[in-house]
Amino acid sequence: MKKALILVALLFMGCSSAELVDNWKNPDIVIFDASKVLIVGMTSNSKAQEGFETKMKKQFTNRGVEAMRSVDLFDVEFTDSQRSEEELDEVEQSLLDKDFDAILFTKILGSEDIETFRKEMVDINSYYDNFKDDYLSHQDIYYDENYYDQYKVYHAETALYCICVGKERELIWRGIIDITDPSNIKNVIDDYIQLVVLAMEEQDLIFHKEADEEDSTNL
Fold first, then answer.
1. I want to staple 65 with a disulfide (CB 3.0 to 4.6 A). Which of 60, 112, 124, 159 is the partner?
2. pTM across the whole model
3. Three-state secondary structure along the chain?
4. Predicted local confidence at residue 44, as pLDDT
């Protein structure tokens, strides 16, 4: 039902440069709240990364949730080359030590054939169920400047991971979004964030619609 509400809402967004393709929520989670969130935008375009993380951080701040951009936490050198599983373990532990309890992880992917890509995404539950594996499998996005050259249509995934002490660092929610006009970075970022916030509100994940309705109208 909530997925249907999201799709109905998208009909009123007009000519958006981003479109929600699918989303999945951990069936064991009803409501998820976080007090401190790390925002990670994985892309080789540093301007787009900073713009996305800054605007997404504002969404959390406006709702009274502490958030930090990955560009403020990770050294530039960290994303310049591949990192090992042990190094990602250290990152996750350092986040726990700094009282983070969630990661909102967005990565940009590409596909020449949108129908083929969507077929590959049908079994979304089989995708990476923790932040470390997800990051390790896609970290070349940061430093491969030719990663997107062959693609005409872009696709993005945003995943919410819990890194709470005493719990598995598990996947809470994942949304799949198509980017149909990647030429205008500002519009793409604005539309993308609007979709992510809407989807998370409908799923009661950090953003809660009833409490946030008034705040969101002032953004």
1. 60
2. 0.72
3. CHHHHHHHHHHHHCCCCEEEEEEEECCCCCCECCCEEEEEEECCCHHHHHHHHHHHHHHHHHCCCEEEEHHHHCCHHHHCCCCCHHHHHHHHHHHHHCCCCEEEEEEEEEECCHHHHHHHCCCHHHCCCCHHHHHHHHHHHCCCCCCCCCCCEEEEEEEEEECCCCCCCCEEEEEEEEECCCCCHHHHHHHHHHHHHHHHHHCCECECHHHHHHHHCCC
4. 81
